[in-house]
Amino acid sequence: MNTTLIxxxxxxxxxxxxxxxxxxxxxxxxYGVIRLINFAHGDVMMVGTYIAILAVSxxxxxxxxxxxxxxFATAFVGVVIDKIAYKPLRNASRxxxxxxAIGVSFFLENLFLVIFGGVPKSFPIPALFSGTLxxxxxxxxxxxxxxxxxxxxxxxxLMYILHNTKYGIAMRALSLDMDTTRLMGANVDAxxxxxxxxxxxxxxxxxxxxxxxxxxxxxxxxxxPGLKAFAAAVLGGxxxxxxxxxxxxxxxxxxxxxxxxxxxxxxxxxxxxxxLLIFVLLFKPTGIMGExxxxxxx
Amino acid sequence: xxxxxxxxxxSIILLFLFLWYANNNLSAYxxxxxxxxxxxxxxxxxxxxxxxxxxxxSLEPNGFTAIGAYTAAxxxxxxxxxEAMFIISPMVPWLQNLHMSFFPAxxxxxxxxxxxxxxxxxxxxxxxxxxxxxxxxGFGLTIRVVSNNTISITNGPLGLKGIENYTNLWxxxxxxxxxxxxIMRLINSEFGRAMKAVxxxxxAAIAMGINTFKIKMIAFVTSAFFEGVAGGLLAHLIxxxxxxxxxxxxxxxxxxIIVIGGLGSMTGTAIATILVVWGSEILRFVxxxxxxxxxxIPGIPGMRMVIFSILLIVIMIFARExxxxxxxxxxxxxxxxxxTKKVANx
Lengths: 298, 346
Description:
heterodimer, A: mainly alpha, ABC transporter involved in vitamin B12 uptake, BtuC, two-stranded antiparallel ribbon, 11 helices, 71% helix, B: mainly alpha, 16 helices, 2% strand
């Protein structure tokens, strides 16, 4: 294994990691605000890619318009899921909400299986994103360079929203104490909807880039990225947005490099994220950036 | 007390009389569904022991069932069969020559699964609540990845074929009844009360001097044992197993059963198992073309799972208690019901 190859794999890992990171932000924000593992988040990403494919191939929109439409439509889907399935359970036990979230996840997967069938569809890739770059012998797909840049841009925008806008400040307040935030006159329901909208739109962005990188989409495609992104969110410290991004990068790079360095392990790559997750929970349950959000995690 | 035991034994005899009738008179299709009902009853009851009674929400039964199914199948397959089947890479020699009859194989399957559950318990019970759910989900997934890749033990994605069809109504219902009796006795013992204490308030249980880790472990290992045995029965019912059989889908079905029946009630689990297993057979009509007057409505394959997932969401929102809540059936309460009715009639 020479340096060029390692460098190449490192970039691939970075690209995959930023996808995990984009999805992980949605988990971490929803968990931070209403303490719910949004099991259906990976499936929301899948819904996003199907909206994108419909926008491009049925509505015949140019790719940038299709992507914008996808992001807004998926945000709407996320908000609707919250209103219908999670809001009635806001005061119930957390396990009830988790079971409901599992139900929503299965509902989305099976609904899309019924509508679109299980046969993978190919995702149309705009010319801008195909192609490869050759830099001093390192061969890089263009998409592997664009993805981390876009992910970091989204992260910067999100950090700006969280720290400099009224809604962002309200969100951070909500994650500390919902009742007090309500007493301060903030519209808690609207803020939670906004959190779901942000999380789902980032999942949509992640989904679009996932489909550009692995252009074969099917209704069950959201499961693995969703679970790994959750592992990333916990690794980074659940409740922390930069933590989710860092966790995503770590899991993406570890996954790619482990397979590149030890090819016989390739079959086991889907298990890495979970072993990592178990180790993190055992030795540092608050993750890299997280604070102790609750008692009982030890 | 004595009356109740006699009544219980009588109803078990009645159940087996019905099975004897079914075995001789019903078609293979119905016998198959009856077998499925018993296996799902075992799985759901043991799953409810850890999820409902002990309140440790976990998502691992597909992993445990897979371990049980593979262990039992590897043990009952003859060395010659194994040699013919493992074409990608030959089987590990000591497993290759291992051979047992059906019943010991099932017990070994249960014990192996229980040992895995015991080892898994150490890391996973250091976390609670939704983290436990995700970690155990990851375990189920890891088992699938491992069974896909350890080709010299599990034959990888090709799976194991030609498993002898030993499972019949007597085995499945026999084990289901034994499972229920043991789990009910466990629930009504000192340990069972501790399990409920852990569920209702873990901190209070610790304060009362309960070793919560030990209690969770007892529930988890018991549940793993019976899920392993049920996996073995399943393998010898369908005769072909592969890693794709043990996806999260299996866990989801069990979750629906215990939620409908009521988390923490074995009676509810029994009722819900019958409802879900037979209901999903009845619901097959939505996946076949329908003729209403002169219109033909095309069947929609996969629609049953959509219905089941909507059902799960609706139950969680509107009827979180399920059918039985945390209550159990008992002869005493049945008699009391009749007595109060008589009084009301007067």
